[in-house]
Amino acid sequence: MGSITEPNHLPSISYADLRHPDTGIRYKAAEAFRQALGDYGACRIRDHGIPQDRLDKCFEKCRLFFERDAGEKIADHGRSGVASRARFVPYGSEKTRGEAHLEEVLQLRDGIYDSGGNWSFEARELICASETLHATCSVIHRTLLDCLTSSLRLSQSLTAIHSKENSYFAPTYFAPCYQDGEILRVPAHIDPTTMLFNFPDSYGGLRVADLRNRTGNLSAVEMQNTATFIPTGCQPGEFVVLAGNLLRRLVGGMKHSVHYIERPLGSSGFHLNYWTVPNMDTRCDFGDKRETVQDYLARVFPSTFGHS
């Protein structure tokens, strides 16, 4: 029950305990979740109830979609007719501080599943496999928000300022790499989200900064230069929760996760990511910055959120 912490790995929290009918068990698990986000901006979630075969099916549909010629995938998205609900990110086209992300991503915003669109067979199969996972993640996300609201005794419910409309499911592909300089697939960064859920394949590769005893400047550059990064230690039947910068802006005492992804030479594979942002008119003032979520997202990540 509660939290399990292994040496140099993130704490593991039982989702079943977070929903347990015994209030004492629920409280203990919620406190462990809050503490993990206060220490690392991240934790593992186990006992979440998502069958492994459902995740495996989605990974297989990822293979059908992504292991095609780059031009096919770009054209697939271009002719879909539902660009406001889906975004295809070609290999190396997204950058952090000038460093390319060596991955491809199909970002699916809630509502895409009812939008139809002129997709290829491979894309339709992947979108169909993503639909149930997206919906299940939305339920888990609401539970985690409720736990934080209760544990932190917030006057405003975090659930009340989040709607499913602002949730995304993003299958991600890591093509094989054959040079040492390509082991780092995604450089150290902070997500402009409330939370991101990461379901890794067997290679994993996600590492997070150990933020215990860290205060003040938690920028990606500062942490990259001074922090120790640890593997998540994600086990079969677990996923990783990463707190985004928006959660830190909304809730005092939280830390946003600083993380990067590295993969073995020659390996290819997939991650499944789910993330959320608050309602666009929510205030997310932080320090001397006074702005709404919409203003913030248009400023820091316009390629994804500028149209919202």
Automatic annotation (TrEMBL):
Q: Which residues form the Non-haem dioxygenase N-terminal domain?
A: 10-109
TM ranges are none
Which InterPro entries does the UniProt entry name for this protein? DIOX_N, IPNS-like_sf, Iron_ascorbate_oxido_reductase
Spell out the family assignment given in the record's similarity comment. Answer: Belongs to the iron/ascorbate-dependent oxidoreductase family.
Q: Which PANTHER family match?
A: 2-OXOGLUTARATE (2OG) AND FE(II)-DEPENDENT OXYGENASE SUPERFAMILY PROTEIN-RELATED
What name does this protein carry? Answer: Clavaminate synthase-like protein
